[in-house]
Amino acid sequence: MTSAVMMHIVDNVAVIEVDNPPVNALSFAVRSGLQTTLREAEHNEAVDAIVLSCRGNTFIAGADITEFGKPMQPPALPDLLSEMDTLTKPMVAALHGTALGGGLEVALTCHYRVALESAKVGLPEVLLGILPGAGGTQRLPRIAGVELALDMITSGRKVSSKEAAKAGLIDKVVSDDLQNAAIAFAKKVVNNKAPLRRISELTATVSDPAIFDQYRAKLAKTRRGFDAPQRCVDTVQASVELDFADGMKKERELFLELMQGTQSKSQRHMFFAERMAAQVQGLSKGTPTRDINSVAIIGAGTMGSGIAINFTNKGIPVTMLELSFEALERGIKHIHRYYDGQVAKGRISEEQAASAKQLVSGTDNYADLSDVDLVIEAVFESMAVKQDVFTKLDKYCKPGAILASNTSTLNVNTIASFTSRPQDVIGLHFFSPANIMRLLEVVRADSTADDVLATAMKLAKHINKVGVVSGVCDGFIGNRMLKGYGREAGALLLEGVSPARIDKALYDFGMAMGPLTMGDLAGLDVGYRVRKERRERGEYVPETDGAIADRLVEAGRLGQKAGKGYYRYEEGSRTPIPDPEVDAIIKEAMDALGCEPREIDDEEIVKRLIYPLINEAALILDEGIAQRPSDIDVVYIYGYGFPVYRGGPMFYADTVGLPAIVADMEQFQARYGDDWQVAPLLKTLAEQGRSFADLSSK
Ligand code: T1G
């Protein structure tokens, strides 16, 4: 027995308890402890049955991901479960919290399962770019049916104990006193001389074998570019077509293939990167936080109302402030429409929608905000407007209220200077649609107090966002990096590469959508106005910068909202359709600017757009704007649709190899000039044979 696994006997039932905080992961100590205690229980004549339970917040939540990529110390989980499957005494798993991955696989190797009502089960391995590697793909179809198994294994979703019980995955659901309920269940099995129900002895059947190819076709769309979901289907199909032993061999073969692949390494990187982003350098773990029980949002536009939903979803009352009643009503209606939609989709009940709507109130009077704990300004991106808003907030809000700006690029230090309390000012940059995109850039201004920053990071997690700390600079982390990405898309157009080819190259790379389709979605007039204002301020903006976008805007092609931009759009459709008018505009611009077309392959298109992201990120790291490279990966995965199976721009750069990137950039610099100047940090790391991962610190 190890301290991670203990056993005691109650009424001839061996109660084995795993105690391996924080999630009872199946680390070596747990695997070896389970093997020892199970053997002991099997050979102890005083033991008639076994209950397997866990201390702490949850039943085993899976293999220990920190052990991946290192030599696996025996017993490996599949071997432990194979031995477990031979035991002759009834085993009952007692499930609470989230029995996930290897944890559920252990529970499926028990003969019975008793769960708390609040428990959830799942096989989320696919989210790590792998698949259940200890019999989950062979046992789940046998006990819960192929359809549910396919759904759970290819989506990685958690299933409530109620739904699992309905599918026969769980034998008894209790509201409390789980361990005693499991002991009583075990004793009943013994007294009734109930048979040992080994799932491995059941068979998996399917009414229509076409389901597997149907799943593959669906996943090719919904999980485009991912290998693991496809292999998951292969293993579930094997559970139907092969006997248990051969099915296990198939599972093992595909598990190892995925585990050694780049996609899984990328997705495992992102698992930890997301959690590491919450570690704020220079902020001690015990930093106090302020209570946020009420929120005000200035500006009820698309962003403001989207931001509001994050809080009403968590039962936090929101006061929307707008200058005009019509704008206020429009914003509140947007929120109501959202909740009506959630009801229509069966995601929430009418009552839940009604209570969420009641949390929203509106005003045009700043005096009504005198008691809110947090204000988020989401008004027009103009410093003059921000100054007006923050001056009023400073006047009316109570001491200790946090004053946040949702600005996407403006200087938060300047915004803080409009108040007498800069220590309470912070940037909270949401991404549109604000109630859906998980990224939240938390912009730490020079005077932002530690407890304000700690409160913001805690609040991010509470509203299901991934908070990433950014320093103050133009565009913070994500939008600043996007500049080079957009610049090169424009440059490629002037070299005669069509919008559709540019977009397809990046779509095939794995981006959620190509840069020009994204431009049409966001609206081309935003960039047009920025370039126009910069030129009016006398700033040097090369003629080629935005040359096509500006011509499109001047031709009334603002993007999707105008039904045309780089593409045209049929009424009510978002599908981009290439438009010869755009080709003519590009041709005219090329002639006017003396640009020569060039043959450019997809590989170069990708490098020309992705490498500027990496180069700008190196500057951002050097300036201390981002805390660590993996934070930048989190920004691009959760805010910009970078493919998670490539691990984010920094992880991808390490995969490509920094010397190769620098060599390509130097060639581009020779052809295109100093926009391609290699960032000092990138150059140094490449010369030293190091990677961005070498820079990451806890
Ligand atoms: N291994 C190692 N550490 C883990 C871990 C795991 N499986 N799960 C969580 N942690 C750490 C996490 O890094 C964090 O550490 C702390 O626990 C709290 O996590 C053979 C091969 C269980 C729902 O994929 O989904 O089994 O930051 O902040 O919000 O088929 O953690 O505090 O230092 O997320 O309460 C399959 C992954 C593995 C489950 C809890 N299992 N974990 O959420 O806390 S592969 C998973 C989660 C496998 C077998 C295969 C969540 C959670 P730190 P947290 P939470």
Automatic annotation (TrEMBL):
GO MF annotations, alphabetized: (3S)-3-hydroxyacyl-CoA dehydrogenase (NAD+) activity; enoyl-CoA hydratase activity; isomerase activity; NAD+ binding
Keywords on record: Fatty acid metabolism, Isomerase, Lipid degradation, Lipid metabolism, Lyase, Multifunctional enzyme, NAD, Oxidoreductase, Peroxisome
Pfam entry (one): 3HCDH
Catalysed reaction equations from the record: a (3S)-3-hydroxyacyl-CoA + NAD(+) = a 3-oxoacyl-CoA + NADH + H(+)
Protein localization: Peroxisome
PROSITE patterns recorded: ENOYL_COA_HYDRATASE (PS00166)
Every 3-hydroxyacyl-CoA dehydrogenase NAD binding domain range: 294-470
Pathway assigned to this chain's UniProt record: Lipid metabolism; fatty acid beta-oxidation
Domain of life: Bacteria
Keyword Isomerase carried by entry: yes
Alphabetical list of InterPro entries matching this protein: 3-OHacyl-CoA_DH_NAD-bd, 3HC_DH_C, 6-PGluconate_DH-like_C_sf, ClpP/crotonase-like_dom_sf, Enoyl-CoA_hyd/isom_CS, Enoyl-CoA_hydra/iso, NAD(P)-bd_dom_sf
3-hydroxyacyl-CoA dehydrogenase C-terminal domain: residues covered: 475-569, 605-690
UniProt record, GO biological process: fatty acid beta-oxidation
Entry's family note: Belongs to the enoyl-CoA hydratase/isomerase family.
Quaternary data: Monomer.
Name this polypeptide is given: 3-hydroxyacyl-CoA dehydrogenase
Species of the source: Marisediminitalea aggregata
